Structure formats: C-alpha cells, structure tokens
Amino acid sequence: MAWVMHEHADVDTLAASVATELQAFCGEAIALRGQALLALGGGRTPLPLYRRLARCPLPWSQVTLLPTDERCVPHDDPACNLREIGAAFAAADGVELQGLTPPNGDPETSERHARAALAQYPQPFDAVVLGMGMDGHTASLFPGVPRLPEALDPASDIDACRIDPQPLPPEAPYPRVTLTAARLLRARSLHLYLSGADKRAVLERALRSHDPLRYPIGAFLHAADARLHVHWSP
C-alpha cells in the first residue's frame, strides 16, 4: 500500500495532530542536517495547520518553506500562495520563504525562476503537505492540461513546470507554476491534508481509478516508492 489513512475527529484535532507531526520532522531534520525544508500546499484548508505549526517552538531561522505551486501574480496579490503562507507563519520568527515566481509574477519567466530556485535545494523535502481539489488535482497538477503527463512522470528530472489550466478556474484565473510529481515525491514525509465529506468522496474515486491523468492525486496515492499519509476529518 502506497498510502495510509489517518482519520481525525474534527478540523481542530486534524490541525493539531498534523502540526505535531511536522514539528517532529522539522526538529529531527535540524538536529541531523542543521536545516528543515518544507513544501506546502496553498488554499484555505491548511491555513489553520500552518498557523498552529508556526506557534510551535522551533529554531525557525533554520527552516525554509516553499509553496508546492504558485499562481503567476505579484507577490503582494491576495491570490499569491507565498503571501498567504507567509501570513500564516507570521509567528515563526526568522523562517525563510522561497518563492517560485519572480516578485512581479511574470508568467513568461516563472518556470525558469522556479527551476533556478529549486536548484538551490537539491536535497529531499523533509515534509510535503498536499491538498486536493474537487477535480482530483493537487498542487497545480490539473487533469486535462497538455503538460500533465510530463509533470506527473515519476522519472522526470524536471523540478517545476508551467501549467495553464483549461479552462482557467473562475476563482483564480491565472497561469501557474507547479512542482512536478517527481520533485514532490522526493520527500522524507508526504502528507495529504483534507476535510469534509465531498473531499472524501473524491479521494475514494481516485483510489479506485488508478488513472493519474483523470485524478492527478493518484500519482501520489499509488506511487511505487513513496508512502502518502492521508489526514482527513469531517
């Protein structure tokens, strides 16, 4: 089995439990290597987790956070994942944030910028936190986009690529840059963070499908060489 399910009583328990796990992973990484590296999904669902983790006692100046994906918007735009993550970690004094796009969010240079940024961090992530949309996408790995097979290839040596959702989501109509599945799977711990019955139903369909082009989260649920910890609450 490439995945393991952790069910939590409610969203507060979910956030507290996963924050405790991530704190432990960070502490272990810092003790062993002097640095912890995390890739974090955007959106509203994980923000309580991030705020709780930010209050944990860690040497935050030795922790680096990257988004798993980013919208090609300026860094001060409310739609910017880096901006939201930074706000959620306001209590984590000294934490380092690494963006995937240039400050102006230029779509034409964002892929190159992301690959150069990731080249500074060749080591595996100490933890990755993924979310999942109602269409089964994770990060910005959307079903049906032309570059999806390339972005999901587990043998790829490409760390990031530009994704243009088709059609663009009306709530966030922007080109994206996303970490590839191969880069996200290069992690010491891999977590999917979900809540609600609707998301549980999508998860069950993805588990049955075994087709990551239809449900991109399946590339992580069924990965041969990684174990995905699925954290869910009602």
Automatic annotation (TrEMBL):
Catalyzed reactions: 6-phospho-D-glucono-1,5-lactone + H2O = 6-phospho-D-gluconate + H(+)
Domain (Glucosamine/galactosamine-6-phosphate isomerase) ranges: 10-222
GO molecular function, one term: 6-phosphogluconolactonase activity
Keywords for the protein's UniProt record, in alphabetical order: Hydrolase
E.C. numbers: 3.1.1.31
Gene3D superfamilies: 3.40.50.1360
Top-level enzyme category: hydrolase
A family per Pfam: Glucosamine_iso
Known pathway: Carbohydrate degradation; pentose phosphate pathway; D-ribulose 5-phosphate from D-glucose 6-phosphate (oxidative stage): step 2/3
Family, similarity comment: Belongs to the glucosamine/galactosamine-6-phosphate isomerase family. 6-phosphogluconolactonase subfamily.
Cited function: Hydrolysis of 6-phosphogluconolactone to 6-phosphogluconate.
Protein name, as recorded: 6-phosphogluconolactonase
Taxonomic path: Bacteria, Pseudomonadati, Pseudomonadota, Gammaproteobacteria, Lysobacterales
Gene name for this UniProt entry: pgl
